[in-house]
Design brief:
Layout (H helix, E strand, L loop, with lengths): L11 H6 L2 H20 L5 H8 L3 H29 L1 H21 L3 H29 L2 H33 L1 H22 L14 H13 L1 H31 L4 H55 L9 H26 L6 H26 L5 H19 L1 H5 L8
Helix pairs in contact: 2-6, 2-7, 2-8, 4-5, 4-6, 4-13, 5-6, 5-8, 6-7, 6-13, 7-8, 7-11, 7-12, 10-12, 10-13, 10-14, 11-12, 11-14
Length: about 425
């Protein structure tokens, strides 16, 4: 059976070996690794801080360092997958993820836990990077955005149970049990990959790892206006989400007095709204196209940023506001996030069918390089109020809206890959 690419970049061999349902399940598991790695441990952070005698800065480093390692590692995983194929990179990455998760469970001190999280983030980079590249391997741009939205719907379904499960583990067992969940998920994902995943990189590039080739590839990708537009869209939307995830457990649990289980229920509800957003994305793309869909979602994001900045800055502590001043704007944001992420992540690789791994890696690095300083800033700015959260979230929302209304409108339709 031929494995040459079809028009639009879909290799017949890979498509025949993996039915669409299997592709969606694999995408859900690979993309879902990120919320599992972050959301499950969110309710356990206050208990972790108390047990290990950690500072707020050290606790935030368990996120910031994870995200930085996640982003930097993709610069290596991407070219490796272009050279060797997606399958060996995925198997190696998931094996390393399982080992790093076990190290998190047994880490006796905060510095060792941070080191284990760095290893975990580096390994996670292989999974998420390859997921984006697989979509470009198999599908043309518009269909790729729809398939990515299906995979991200699966991510949302996984994320629904993450925070509640972490809350249960932390409340009934121990904060270390939350980290054990990550190892179990990693083992299951590794087993599915080993049994069902078939190589999608139909034409590995033997020169993909050459320094000169890497430089030319990344320079070409970074200059492409479509990549710039969609990478900024995906990055700013992710930074808004990251800001909420990194700060919300301390604000809602410690400042507002919510229980760990109540916090987990809120996060589950937001994950359900994310699924609604991804489903809406699939329905709207064929009717409205990429540009109009993103523009409407940008309006929701802008509204969310203004609401949280106003409510959290001026009145979040009043009894009749409570947690709603944070949760309601985040609900609007997460609906739009369900549009921005599948469109943004698929759009960054769309112009580059022969460099999908490198394009996915560069986009992933940019996203995490932006999140890292935000995590460091939050570690120093958190003062027991919602104001740092509102400020960081609001600024991210403004960048999302600007990008959706300008850059995506000008450059949102991918051009052919440069020769």
């Amino acid at each position: 059976m031929s494995t040459q690419p079809q028009a639009g970049g879909a290799p017949r061999g890979a498509a025949a070996a993996m039915p669409p349902l299997i592709v969606v399940v694999l995408l859900a598991l690979l993309l879902g690794l990120q919320p599992v790695t972050t959301d499950v441990v969110l309710p356990a952070l206050p208990a972790l801080q108390a047990d290990l005698g950690a500072s707020m800065h050290q606790v935030q480093m368990t996120f910031a360092a994870l995200m930085l390692a996640f982003g930097v590692s993709q610069l290596a995983w991407g070219p490796l997958s272009d050279r060797l194929g997606r399958r060996p990179v995925l198997l190696a990455g998931m094996g390393a993820y399982v080992l790093a998760s076990l190290a998190c469970v047994v880490a006796p001190t905060m510095p060792l836990l941070i080191l284990a999280r760095i290893a975990q983030g580096a390994a996670m980079g292989a999974a998420v990077m390859c997921a984006r590249a697989i979509v470009r391997d198999l599908y043309p741009p518009l269909e790729g955005a729809r398939m990515m939205s299906k995979g991200l719907s699966g991510l949302g379904a996984i994320a629904i149970v993450c925070a509640p499960l972490g809350g249960l583990m932390a409340a009934w067992l121990h904060w270390r049990a939350a980290f054990a969940v990550l190892g179990v998920f990693g083992i299951g994902t590794l087993a599915v990959l080993a049994l069902r995943f078939r190589e999608t990189n139909a034409a590995p590039n033997p020169h993909a790892l050459a320094p000169r080739t890497l430089w030319r590839s990344w320079t070409c990708i970074a200059r492409h206006p479509t990549f710039i537009a969609y990478s900024l869209l995906a990055t700013s939307s992710y930074v808004g989400l990251f800001t909420f995830l990194a700060a919300s457990s301390f604000v809602l649990i410690e400042a507002l007095g919510l229980s760990q289980l109540a916090y987990g229920a809120i996060m589950a509800g937001l994950s359900a709204l994310y699924i609604v957003g991804t489903v809406a994305c699939r329905r709207l793309l064929p009717r409205w196209g990429l540009r109009r869909t993103v523009a409407v979602a940008g309006g929701l994001t802008f509204t969310a940023g203004v609401l949280m900045a106003a409510l959290a800055w001026f009145g979040w502590g009043r009894p009749w506001y409570g947690a709603w001043a944070l949760v309601l704007p985040q609900a609007l944001f997460i609906l739009a996030h369900g549009v921005h992420q599948p469109v943004g992540q698929s759009g960054t690789v769309a112009p580059f069918p022969r460099m999908a791994g490198a394009a996915s890696a560069l986009n992933g690095f940019i996203m995490m390089a932006a999140a890292f300083p935000v995590g460091l800033w939050l570690g120093r700015a958190m003062d027991g109020t919602a104001r740092p959260l509102a400020l960081g979230f609001g600024l991210a929302c403004m960048v999302v809206a600007f990008t959706a209304w300008t850059l995506v409108q000008r450059h949102g339709q991918p051009d052919p890959e440069p020769a």
